[in-house]
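Journal club side-thread
Mid-discussion, someone asked how the predicted structure for our own chain would compare to the paper's figures. Pasting it here so we can look after the session.
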Amino acid sequence: MAILPNSTMSRYIRLVNGFPKLSREEESELWHRWRDGLDDRAKNDFVRSNLRHAVAIALKHRRYGLPLAELIAEGNVGLVHALSKFEPERGNLFVTYAAYWIRAYILNYIIRCWSLVDVGSGPLRSKVFFKLRRERVRIHNLVGEGELADKLLAERFGVSRDQMVGTMQRLDSRDLSLDLPAFNGATTSILDTLPSPICNQEQAYLDSLEENRMRNIVRTAFDALDKREKLIIENHLMRDVEDELSLADIGRRLGVSKERARQLEMRAKCKLRKRIMELSGSQGLSGIDVNSAA
């Protein structure tokens, strides 16, 4: 077990390695004392004597580039979880049983930290993440890189070639913080180099002028309608859905049938559309959606 000298982590590793190991009898006694009497001291002694195993398993997973302290912490959580489920009557040593939970917690943590972009789900995610690189090296040594290698990898993991290629691309990349320097020694972050989603003042001013001209065109076209047509447009087309009047209600207000109200609506829309097109053309505007405006 490699230990980094002169570091907090190395002191922690020396500490946990110094806790006494438990024999099968001592292990059983402590476990029963904790289970029968909920003796927290017995539980603490039990866990302390097995912390070395969480460290050993965490050290085997350092190649994924995560802080060793975080891997050990996850392994310790798995160790405590294993204790809550352990049944010595089955005849297994605790370390044999706990190793499964320690490894599961560490591997799950690695997957969660690897990327914000998911690499899959369920068994495929775990299988691909922890075996893909090894299998890819083996196949590349046999057939080289290319489509044949991708096909063989996909067959090996029981997925389509396109799915395998996409998974490899995600696994080969890592998330980067936008707060990182744009390049070595730079005081500018990656975030500073991204285009702003906010329009500059000149564009905002031009957009405002365009919007005002469009409003004036629609208002002018609306004023050209007669009184009945205005009532229909205002109460049937310009209101929110929950507040608009039905054509039947409008017909009752105007003293006409529902069908006549529909005809008046169509006439009003045609007038609006025609007038808006005329005004837009005379002012050199092409950005008005005539159908939505009408």
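Post-session note: The chain has three domains: 8-114, 122-172, 201-293.
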